[in-house]
Amino acid sequence: MPLDPVSAPAVAVRGLVKRFGDTTAVDGLDLRLRRGQILALLGPNGAGKTTTVEICEGFTRPDSGEVRVLGLDPISDNDRLRARIGVMLQGGGAYPGAKAGEMLRLCAAYSADPLDPDWLLEVLGLTDCAATPYRRLSGGQQQRLALACALVGRPELVFLDEPTAGLDAHARILVWELISRLRDDGVAVLLTTHLLDEAEELADEIVIIDHGRVVASGTPADLTGAQSQDRLRLVTTTPVDTEALAIALGADYRCEPAGASTCTVIGPVTPQSIARVAAWCADENILATELTAAHVSLEEVFLSLTGLAVRS
């Protein structure tokens, strides 16, 4: 039964497959984004995230699977869908000779009820460069203008591709605040980013994909908390023989160096295991300055699942 375009999820993807020659870019992927939520799609280069987003935006046709965006088919219903979504492209998508203010007003003219372009320029710190041609804007200004063009039409759903790439710390926080306000206003956001702290800060749900498949999904707390309960962080004044410590703790434990005088003890964290680590340090005449249940970062989760560093 077709989904009601009004009550349907912002994005519903099931069994998505896309091939380019002999390469399968997306391999049976499922994805669901609720309205008024932020979903961060993460993955290393070549994982299939850009292809997935381009299919949802209606720029690329899938080979198989079902894709519905605001209850509509992004290919056959593209004309109906275009007015309801905002797309921020990594390359900016602006005419090189167009002035920043002109470009934003052109985008606003495509909408029946746009935001005030002058207000949006002010919010994003672009008022002073409104008369500057796009090609003469700094990378950060181009990035903020691309975001403004995606938002000016009051979309129900926004696709943001690396929204803070190249921005300084102040501009990055400003964009984070604006994205959070979109969610507060009921706008759904599908975000791709290589900045894992950005995903952890903004997203209601994170989906990690690799080789075109979902390898993990959940809230940031779900993804990091599942592994945190089985780790201890040990900081000492002198380096630790991690192999000797692991032998002393027993077969259920292993130790990994995490710095010159820091290591991670992986295994069941109990009062007894904490006491055994402390006792081993005392026996070895090693001063432990910190012994805590470790918080696993999103980056550690990402690397454990994909084995690759995050790259833009």
TrEMBL record:
One of its GO terms (molecular function) is ATP binding. InterPro entries: AAA+_ATPase, ABC_transporter-like_ATP-bd, ABC_transporter-like_CS, ABC_transporter_ATP-binding, P-loop_NTPase. Keywords: Antibiotic resistance, ATP-binding, Nucleotide-binding, Transport. It holds the Pfam family ABC_tran. It is found in: Cell membrane. Residues 11-236 form the ABC transporter domain. SUPFAM superfamilies: P-loop containing nucleoside triphosphate hydrolases. It is a peripheral membrane protein. This is ABC transporter ATP-binding protein. It comes from Gordonia caeni.
